[in-house]
Specification:
Blueprint lengths: L1 H11 L28 E4 L7 H17 L4 E3 L8 E6 H8 L13 E6 L2 E6 L2 H16 L7 E4 L5 E5 L19 E2 L2 E2 L4 H12 L4 E3 L12 H14 L5 E6 L3 H4 L11 H17 L5 E4 L16 H12 L5 E5 L18 H6 L10 E6 L22 E7 L15 H8 L12 H5 L10 E5 L15 H12 L5 H13 L3 H21 L38 E2 L17 H8 L9 H4 L2 E2 L10 H24 L7 H33 L14 E3 L4 E3 L1 E5 L10 E5 L6 E6 L5 E10 L7 E6 L2 E7 L2 H4 L13 E11 L4 E7 L8 E7 L6
Parallel strand pairs: 1-2, 1-3, 3-5, 7-10, 7-16, 10-11, 11-12, 12-13, 13-14, 14-15, 15-16
Antiparallel strand pairs: 4-5, 4-6, 8-9, 17-18, 19-29, 20-23, 21-22, 23-28, 24-27, 24-29, 25-26, 25-28
Bound molecules: 4-O-methyl-beta-D-glucopyranuronic acid.
């Protein structure tokens, strides 16, 4: 008996690699108690193995086995058997099992779920609706929820799509979870196991289509061989009710079609696209449609031929229409601008390009609009375009992949950010006009609409490169289904499904996640100034100067005295005038503009006082200290869960949170140094530029090391680091530590570039206390940097080191490849100090 118990508890923390995501069907503690109340058979009303109803039956069987250890058989008739789960479509149920008169009306993809004792009914309006119902029932069971229910659940919007930015060579633009699960070497991969597993995860949260290739589209996706490959992907998606869609290159007729034009009104071009579309439907009868990035960031489009964007979109809408296909046409259209023009403003571009076209798009076109008017920043105001398209269907574009938000190396739970836009009231015609009601079609009576999420999963077993980042994908699906859902309660469903029902696990991960976006905003870009990441390179670490003096229009207009974009009508770019009057009036006036967007809308002195009472510059300083401090607590909170989570996932997350704790300090110091340097205004709390617990590497005694002026300067403490004198010289940096004797955490800040794996060793009085290798190019999964900068800057901490006053600290750095074992500084941290 004792042995059995031991085995049982060991099973609870068995190693997990993340592949099953939230569909683990892990054993429920005390499951045996419920065995009697569970159905003892499954009736799935479709015997065809590729049907979602069949899959629903198998999932239910697998779930009951995993969660309760109960084996249940499946049949495909006999729907009135007692103690059974019946799953199927409403129509099939009426046909095989008699009346379903008592059921409420269901919408496409909706389902009815009723549990009475051990009789369960799961009926979908269509097959995938039935599958969604099965997943919902399993989600209840896996969370230990045995309530008796009887309700209909309908999605709020028909478009619940995923965009993958996968390239045909297998790389993924802005992907941080490994290579593509769909493509390699110019074609579709032969083994589509992962594609099927992905479809399963997506179906379980109600997502219904995947655009499998990058919006920066390679025209050769449409070769006959690739269409055949895409057909194979669609075949593995279909049993999960997931449809395949494609990104198109607008110039395909000239690139692969042999035509001399791609003019959308040219008959040969129309015929070419009609033919391609017919071929696609021949192989993929349930093909969902096209996604088009046109006239944007160098992509070709209709403007080349002086045709409108609507004419460009309708070119695809027409051939898709007879098949029921949809065109998702992206609103991300803008030009390079000149910063010396005070009125130039990229944020205005989408409305300028699209507003005059409202009503000119065919009915099966949906304009896909990023949540804010620039580009997935840490905070943006709602895109005003949502208020302008009343006779055109729209969808919101969200990024699950954390391109500008830490690239899965920082925990950032995104739904609270998305909610600032989904719940925003645009007050069109002075009436309630929540973005969530606009995209679902409700506000302007549109039948189409919904959400597109850029996900970019890869071959990593964690899918996104980080276990905790999967909460964003899960929540994306739940919000696409119903954008009124609450981010925290959705998060807690995900935690229970992913990590189990332990109260402390749920509370801890909830707290970390809910604090994570505010913390990230605090230690990156505040007050609506955008993320302040390096927009010209990897979009990862800090580089505020990269925002300005270029044509990208993500300007901060920061100078020695002032900062922010004046977007007012009276004195600025006029962007505020793109909002309906009530919203425009709020943002036009600095007194009614919320602090968190003040620098988005107004250009002010650093000494401008916010509603909070703080000056802008002091807010920057304080926010950066507080954000980085919060990030330290994520690690300690996670450590409180040791033993409650399997080692594999515990260690993986621990590694990332350690990284985040260090990198949040890099962010904090870089942004504070930058604006202190620019403004010359000191931090009232005397923290910025004042680091009593640091020993700068350049002030240590060096042998084989030389000083190095880091660029951007603010990404090194005291602007200077050290590097080995050659790529093969071992460097030594030595110093006497003059702190009072005691126990400290010893933190070393260094740079981990790609192009080499340097090795560092730390000695105290010639006793080695630690060593490490600069291999983040293998471990972090984000786009690395070849320079010493805010992307490569990082920290390692040795905890609880006993140090006597006068001890000698020595760091030995061995370079590798082009990485010269760079070091920035050492911090000797008494308990509770974050320096
Ligand atoms: O933010 C930018 C990204 C590009 C992306 C583009 C877009 C796919 O940096 O990588 O291209 O947005 O959304 O089209």
């Amino acid at each position: 008996m004792r042995r059995l118990l031991l085995l049982a508890s060991a099973a609870l923390v068995a190693a997990e690699n993340g592949l099953d995501g939230w569909l683990r069907y892990a054993p429920l503690p005390g499951a045996s108690r419920y065995l009697h109340d569970l159905p003892s058979s499954i009736v799935s009303l479709n015997a065809s193995e590729t049907s979602p109803v069949y899959v629903a039956g198998s999932e239910l069987q697998k779930g009951l086995q995993g969660i309760f250890g109960k084996q249940v058989s499946i049949s495909h008739q006999n729907c009135n058997a007692s103690s059974s789960i019946v799953v199927g479509t409403v129509d099939e149920y009426s046909k095989l099992c008699g009346s379903s008169a008592a059921l409420p009306e269901l919408e496409q993809d909706g389902f009815w779920l009723s549990t009475k004792g051990n009789s369960v009914q799961i009926l979908g309006r269509n097959e995938r609706g039935a599958l969604y119902g099965a997943f919902e029932y399993l989600s209840m069971l896996a969370q230990g929820n045995f309530s008796q229910v009887a309700y209909a659940n309908n999605p709020r919007a028909p478009i619940r799509w995923v965009n993958q930015w996968d390239n045909l060579d297998g790389s993924i633009e802005r992907g941080y979870g490994g290579a593509s699960i769909f493509f390699e070497n110019g074609g579709v991969v032969s083994n589509l196991t992962r594609a099927a597993q992905y479809a399963r995860l997506l179906a379980s949260i109600g997502l219904n289509a995947v655009v499998v290739n990058n919006v920066n589209a390679n025209a050769s996706i449409l070769t006959p061989q690739n269409i055949e490959g895409l057909g194979r992907i669609a075949d593995v998606f279909r049993p999960y009710g997931v449809q395949l869609a494609l990104s198109l290159n607008f110039a395909s007729p000239t690139i692969i079609g042999g035509l001399s034009t791609y003019d959308p009104l040219d008959p040969s071009v129309i015929a070419w696209w009609t033919n391609v579309t017919d071929q696609l439907y021949q192989r993929i009868p349930d093909f969902a449609g096209y996604l088009v990035k046109a006239d944007s960031e160098g992509q070709p489009g209709p403007l080349t031929y002086n045709r409108t964007l609507a004419q460009g979109a309708n070119l695809f809408a027409k051939p898709l229409q007879p098949y029921g296909g949809i065109v998702m046409f992206r609103a991300f259209v803008y030009n390079q601008l000149n910063e010396s023009d005070w009125k130039a403003d990229r944020a205005k571009a989408a409305v300028e390009f699209f507003q005059g076209l409202d009503g000119q798009f065919d009915d099966n076109v949906v304009v896909q609009i990023k949540y804010g008017p620039i580009d997935f920043q840490v905070r943006e105001p709602t895109s005003p375009l949502f208020a302008h398209l009343r006779n055109t269907s729209t969808a919101i574009e969200l990024e699950i992949t954390q391109e500008y938000l830490g690239q899965q190396c920082h925990l950032v739970y995104l739904p609270p950010l998305w909610k600032t836009v989904l719940d925003f009231d645009l007050r069109v015609d002075q009436k309630p006009s929540l973005v969530r009601d606009i995209i679902t079609g409700q506000r302007f009576n549109r039948t189409l609409g919904g959400s597109a999420g850029v996900v970019n999963v890869g071959t990593n077993t964690t899918w996104l490169g980080s276990h905790l980042a999967m909460s964003n994908l899960y929540a994306y699906g739940r919000l696409a289904w119903d954008p009124a859902n609450d981010p925290q309660s959705v998060l807690q469903d995900w935690i229970r499904l992913t990590f189990g029902l332990d109260r402390s696990v749920i509370d801890t991960i909830t707290q970390m996640s809910m604090e994570s976006w505010p913390a990230y905003e605090n230690y990156s870009g505040n007050l609506g100034i955008q993320t302040l990441t390096d927009i010209l390179y990897t979009h990862f670490g800090p580089n505020p100067a990269s925002q300005d003096n270029n044509g990208w229009g993500q300007w901060t207009r920061a100078d020695h005295t002032s900062i922010g974009m004046d977007r007012t009508v009276w004195n600025g770019t006029g962007y505020t005038g793109q909002y309906p009057p009530e919203v425009a009036a709020m943002y036009e006036n600095i007194d009614t503009t919320p602090d968190n967007l003040v620098l988005w809308f107004h250009h002010v002195n650093y000494t401008h006082r916010l509603h909070s009472g703080k000056t802008v510059i002091q807010h920057f300083y304080d926010a950066h200290y507080s954000g980085a401090e919060t990030a330290q607590t994520f690690l300690t909170m996670w450590e409180s869960l040791k033993g409650k989570i399997d080692d594999e996932r515990y260690n993986d997350v621990h590694f990332r949170l350690t990284y985040q704790a260090g990198h949040s300090i890099v962010w904090r110091d870089a942004i504070n140094n930058f604006y202190f340097n620019l403004s010359g205004i000191p931090d009232e709390a005397k923290r910025v530029g004042n680091h009593p617990w640091r020993v700068e590497a350049e002030s240590m005694t060096l042998s084989g090391y030389k000083t190095y002026a880091v660029n951007p300067f603010e990404t090194a403490s005291n602007t200077t680091a050290i590097v080995t004198t050659t790529n093969s010289t071992v460097g030594t940096a030595t110093t006497k530590l003059e702190y009072p004797s005691g126990t400290y955490d010893l933190a070393v800040n260094y740079y981990d570039m790609y192009g080499g794996k340097s090795h560092w060793q730390v000695y105290l009085n010639n006793r080695k206390i630690g060593e490490w290798v600069g291999n983040s190019e293998d471990t972090l999964g984000h786009t690395p940097s070849i320079y010493l900068d805010g992307h490569s800057a990082t920290r390692i901490t040795f905890r609880g080191v006993k140090i006597e006053k006068g001890d000698e600290l020595k760091i030995v750095g061995t370079p590798d490849g082009v990485e010269p074992a760079p070091l920035d500084y050492v911090s000797v941290l008494p308990e509770g100090v974050v320096d």
